Structure formats: structure tokens, C-alpha cells
Amino acid sequence: MSRWFSRNLIRIYAVLALIYLFIPVGYTMAFSFNDAGKRNINWQGFTLDNWKNPCGAPDICVALGNSLKIGFLSTLVATILGTMIAFALGRYKFRGRSSTNLLIFLPMATPEIVMGASLLAMFVNLNVNTGFWTTVIAHIMFCISFVVVTVKARVASLDPKLEEAARDLYANEYQTFRRVTFPLVLPGIAAAALLAFSLSFDDFIITNFNSGTITTFPKFVWISSIRGVPAQANVIGTAMFLIALFIVIAGQLIGSAKAKRKS
Amino acid sequence: MAIAHVSPGTSTHVNPERTGRRIPYLLMLPGLLWLFIFFIYPLINLAETSTKTRAASQETGAFIQTYRFANYLDAFIEYQDQFLRSFTYAFMATLLALVISYPLAYAIAFKSGRYKNILLILVIAPFFTSFLLRTIAWKQILGAEGPVVSALRALHLIGPDTTITASSFAVVMGLTYNFLPFMTLPIYASLDRIDPRLMEASGDLYANGLTTFRKVTVPLSMPGVVAGTLLTFIPAAGDYINAAILGNPTTKMIGNVIDSRFFRIVDYPTAAALSFTLMAAILFLVIIYIRRSGTDELV
Hints:
The structure holds two protein chains of two kinds. By secondary structure, chain A is mostly helical. Chain A folds into two domains: 1-53 and 231-263, no CATH class; 58-229, MetI-like fold (Orthogonal Bundle), CATH 1.10.3720. Chain A has helices at 2-7, 9-30, 49-52, 60-91, 97-109, 112-125, 132-156, 160-168, 173-202, 205-210, 217-224, 231-262. In chain B, 72% of the residues lie in helices and 2% in strands. Chain B has 13 helices and two strands. Chain B is mainly α. Chain B has helices at 2-6, 16-49, 70-78, 80-110, 116-124, 131-142, 147-154, 168-192, 196-204, 209-238, 241-246, 254-263, 268-293; strands at 52-54, 63-65. In chain B, helix 9 packs antiparallel against helix 10 (209-238) and helix 12 (254-263) packs antiparallel against helix 13. The radius of gyration of chain B is 26 Å and the shape is globular. Chain B has a single domain (73-293), classed as MetI-like fold (Orthogonal Bundle), CATH 1.10.3720. Chains A and B meet through helix 2, helix 4, helix 5, helix 6 and helix 7 of A and helix 1, helix 2, helix 4, helix 5 and helix 6 of B.
């Protein structure tokens, strides 16, 4: 028994760490079924009402809609801009490469509150009214770096022999890119887009500074937390969790199925 | 025909050197422009705001440029406690996250067999639930009406008035929790890259498990540890959500001050000076840390 214990100590530790990670998720899920009305703090009994009517809390679905719209728009733009930079950095040697790397690193090393505050100060100085579009602008800004880093890793890990082979087989530069390089980098781009979307969807600090009067889902949660978060917020949180998990697992399965077919 | 087509120097390949030189710049142009306009320029603008003073008209939000650098000193002296607290909390949270993450990453990299991918997904998965919802969940779990306090009270381990939330312990725990995957994933990535033959070689040279771990595994995983500690420390030092939800007025961090200076007091110069001091302090610590740990490849 004690030998088994010492041999598996690190596995036990890992399981405990994972349990710690999942405690608040489990709590959020459980309380999405709480029959608590507006004050979702104590367990009042099981109900499916919150799941049947996720928009039941006032304004929650407006906030959710804004978050989804902002998320999609900023993911789209940030993924395109970031992927282009990643290709330039991963593929070419040029002057200013290391300062570009630094510029990409800087937003990740800057506290969110500083980025949010500085952007708001600029909008205030320029007399720009903050709202939906200023939020999209801000989200694109902080997502770009994460996209660059994710895609660049994938570009750097490509085997140059594959592209050489394509050229040896008379593919021109465009065809090589279209048929060989791009499909190989695509999983990296997909991962980057997923990351950008989850960063945007979950962002509160920068959004709170730059969104003016429009609400997003995290802003809704923050505002309602003063009086008690409605159970519908737990429903949406749980649903987002399940959807994201489904996408990631599906991506893994597709990836491993492809790998099997090739071998 | 085909031979003529591929012969070097034909029209399809005129001067790849010259056209190739412009391509990276064109590719980067839109993205870098975005960062310049919406990241760099606002920072410059913030620097400018930080030395302004309130306009004579006393109108809310009206400030004039007076190049008053004493704003920095004033702000720092007034809020030195919050600065110190932010860095202390961030340091403690980073240390705790490292203690939790290293064995977890080690177990995933070396002891998980075919469950490796599933475990990796499990590490990231909690973060698909909103950050605020999870922090509020901790507040309720550890709160006065929550299960933990009730259980401890029933066992008479704590008095009827003792609480867990609204304390610096709860804030540090929240920070640790919220940035944990930023620590785990880079450490995992660098552990996973280690060639297992190196560990075998160490064993062949009569090193025991502990020596191998100390002399081979840990040094080779250092880039991940450095990246992970930075990715945890930086957001933790600037965070104010955990302090706002899990703390009390005496656990306010510098982020809380910047937030209230901006929104409640509409004192942009002080908020700007505090933001810059925070950023400079973080960059200073980061540079020393990177120098000390000898990993420059991060950037």
C-alpha cells in the first residue's frame, strides 16, 4: 500500500490539482440548476427552469449577443492580421525582426489595466464615444500578439523539405503556399482563433474601460454580482464551457484521425 | 516545353531577392499599424496625461499639460502600500502556482501515457467558464454561507465569526487559481521537449532519481518555468478583480486604485502616473529576472 502510494504520489498530486481546478466549474454548473430566483447563493432545490429559459434574467441575452458579436469580429480581424505577422516572422529574415518580436511581446507583458486605461485616455482625448466599436478595436489589439505567438510556433515547426518537395514537383510559389504550407499551418491558425475568441469573450478589464454603456457577458456578471448573479448566468457559463470543450475534443479527434490515415 | 519553363531566371522567378525583401514588411504592415495606433500611441498619450494638472475651471475631466513630474512622486507616496501589496500578492501567487503546476506538468509530461491529451484538455477546460463566474464561485464556496465555512464551524475548527473570504488569503488563492494554466502549460511544453534519453543517460551514469531530476530535468525545464512565472506574475500584479471580489478594503491592490481613480474620481493624471509606475516596475523586474535566469529566447 505505502509503496503503491509513493510510486503514484505524483499522479495523486496531479489529480488533486485537477480537482482544485474544477471545483468552481462544478459549483457554477451545479448552481445553474438551482431554484433560487435572483439571489443564487444558497441551494434551494433542483430545477430545469433556468436551462429552459436562459434569457430569463433581464438584459442577459443582450449582453451575451454583444459578447458573441465582439468575439467573432475581433477574432476574425486579429487572426488575419496576426497570421500575416506570424508568417513574416517565421519565414523571412529581415531588418527590424527582433524589434518586431519585442513589439509583439510588449502587449502580453503589459497589465490589462494599463492597456485599458491608456486606450480609454486616448478615446477621451480624441472625443470618441466609447461603445461597441471601441471594444472591438481594443479586443483586436490585445488578441493580435497571442495569435502571432501561436501561429509562429506552428510555422517554425514546419519541415522545409515539404515545401522544397512541392517546388521540385513544379508547384509555383502560390501553389506551394495554397496546397502545402497553408494546410499545414491551418491547425495552428484554428488554435489561435479559438484562443483569440476565448480571450475576447472572457475579457472584463479592458472591456470595462472601453465599452461605454454597452454590456458584455462579463460586464453583466460583474454588475449583477453586487446583488447576486442570476442562475441564468451559470447556465450560459456552463453552456460556453461545454461548447468549447466539444470544439477542442473534436479538433483533437480530427487531428488524430488524420494522423492515423497518413501513417 | 517543361524544361524551358523551369530553367532558372525565367519570368516566374525574376529577382526573388528583391520582391522577397518587401514581402515581410507588407505582411506585417496592417497588424503592426494596429498595434502602433491602439497600443503604442495610447501609451505615449498616457505618458502625456500623467504630467497634467487639473484645469483652473475645476470642470470634471478637464486637465492641462503642466509637465508636473511630481505627479509620479505624489501618487507613489500616497499609494505605496497598494504597490507593495500588489507585488507581494503577485509574488506569493506565482510561487504557489509554481508549486502546484510543476508536479502537475511533470505528471502530464512523463506519467500520463495515453491520457496525455485528455489531461492537457482538462487543464485548459476550466478556463472556458467565465473568469468572473469562477471567481464569484470561489467567493460563495469559501463565503460565510458556503459549504467550507459551515463544515469548519460544525467541526468547531473555526469560531462562529471567522471567515475565509474578505481576506488576503482569499485574494492570493484567487490569483493563484486564475493564472494557474499560464504556469502549467509553458512548464509542460518545456518538459515535454526533453529527450528521455538524457534522463536515461543520467541513470546509466549512476545518478539516482532525485539527482537526475535536479541536474537534468529541472535545468532543461527552466525556459518553461521562466515563461510560466512571467505569465502568472504580470497579470497578477495588475489584477484588481480578485481583490475586489475576494478581498476587503485592506487588501486593495494597485489595480483597484487605478480603476477608482479613473472611473469614480475622474483623476486621469494620477491614474496615468500609477499605470506607468506599475508598468515600469513590472518591466524592471521582468528584465532583471530574464537576465538572472539566462533565458533570452523568450522574446
